[in-house]
Design brief:
about 150 residues; mainly alpha; Four Helix Bundle (Hemerythrin (Met), subunit A); 6 helices; flat
């Protein structure tokens, strides 16, 4: 269960980062990059604070390596933002490509080992871990429920 959810999240983030990279050839979509960074931080938060601790025993070194890569990914994204602010699209492209390379190997390790370990957890434990993610999810700014958007309640 967790493996499928986390892998789909990787796919979504990768796709958005690739869309940002394409935008660098014309009008850089900084909002897309900021969205990717927020998504990654949320994904990393869930992993580091809830998921990794649940399987840390016997996986300490691998998890420490993944956490170090998390830091590298965020630093590289900050570099991309810096290059955008300097209006250096060529350097922003190079840094974005570097992010994609780091993420590719990182995701392979998580999906090929860590997420499989998470799926071995008891289904109730997996559900608890999923609920931790849901607790921290936030609706987009300005969102309201359908009934209030359509003024169906009078």
């Amino acid at each position: 269960m967790l493996d499928d959810v986390l892998t789909k999240d990787h796919d979504r983030i990768d796709s958005d980062l690739k869309e940002f990279l394409v935008s660098l050839s014309s009008n850089a979509d900084k909002d897309k990059l900021l969205s990717v960074k927020d998504s990654l931080k949320n994904h990393m938060f869930w992993e580091e604070e809830y998921l990794f601790p649940s399987i840390i025993k016997g996986n300490e070194l691998r998890i420490k390596g993944l956490e170090a890569e998390h830091g590298s990914i965020i630093k590289l994204l900050d570099e991309v933002l810096k290059q955008l602010s300097l209006n250096d699209k060529n350097e922003a492209i190079k840094k974005t490509e570097a992010v994609l390379r780091v993420i590719k190997g990182h995701n392979e390790t998580e999906e090929g080992y860590i997420y499989i370990e998470l799926d071995k957890l008891d289904p109730k434990k997996q559900a608890e871990l999923m609920l931790e993610e849901v607790k921290h999810a936030a609706a987009p700014n300005g969102w309201t429920c359908k009934v209030l958007r359509t003024n169906s309640i009078k």
